[in-house]
Design brief:
The protein is mainly α and 238 residues long. It is built from nine helices and no strands.
Length: 238
């Protein structure tokens, strides 16, 4: 069957058009601004690293590279430079904070996304985002002045019964905040809970609702849906 003129015109109209990729002046300006901002950020980071490296050279020459990382004495007045104690303390505090913060943050994210009513969800979401943007010095001051006294008793009890674990060991029975890895780790945990909660909530919210509803429609419980669908989907971003 021969094609008529209207049919040929319809076929011509269906041919994909070539999209012009002309770079406008505004695009070039925007690209230049973005590249400049990225370059400035890299320059600041590189300059900071270079400054620290230059200032650390005298200490490394005095103590030696091996001794710098394998000794715990830090007394610059007599030329003793050792960061082993600082490194171990940092690892212990980070471990305590993650043990405390991760379950709380994931539980809070699940409650906000899956269990809380819409009205409460909006309030909790705004509060968590606000706390995540709060400067860490605020949490540190709050922990020093408000959280230290209530936790000293708990830290002392843990030191008495579980002192074999470095997390709970105190240098003195009535050790203050700066000498208790448990108390410092708890403060750091409260500091990072809003951040982990905000990120986890956003990641879990990306899970297709059709999959969640399908799991519930097949007779699964809400916890089963969370365990089999929601958590596996969001584990890469939590």
């Amino acid at each position: 069957m021969a094609l008529t003129t209207p049919d040929l015109q319809a076929l011509e109209e269906q041919v994909p058009r070539d999209i012009a990729r002309t770079v406008t002046r505004g695009d070039r300006i925007f690209r230049t601004l973005c590249a400049s901002a990225a370059a400035v950020s890299l320059f600041i980071i590189g300059g900071t690293a270079l400054f620290l490296a230059i200032k650390a050279v005298p200490a490394l020459q005095k103590a030696g590279l091996l001794s710098f990382f394998t000794t715990s004495v830090w007394n610059p007045t007599v030329g003793d430079f050792g960061v082993l104690g600082l490194l171990i303390g940092t690892i212990i505090i980070a471990t305590v904070s993650l043990i405390v913060a991760v379950p709380l943050a994931i539980g809070l994210a699940l409650f906000i996304n899956e269990y809380s009513p819409a009205r409460i969800r909006r309030v909790l979401t705004s509060s968590v985002d606000l706390l995540a943007a709060m400067p860490s010095i605020i949490f540190g001051m709050w922990g020093f002045f408000a959280l230290q006294a209530p936790l000293v008793g708990v830290a002392s009890w843990l030191n008495l019964h579980l002192s074999a674990i470095p997390f709970f060991r105190l240098s003195e029975p009535d050790a203050p905040l700066l000498r208790s890895s448990f108390i410092v780790g708890t403060v750091v945990a409260l500091m990072i809970v809003p951040i982990i909660t905000s990120v986890s909530r956003d990641v879990m919210a990306q899970c297709p609702r059709s999959q969640c509803e399908a799991a519930l429609a097949l007779g699964g419980s809400r916890w089963g849906m969370i365990k089999e669908v929601l958590l596996p989907f969001g584990k890469a971003g939590i």
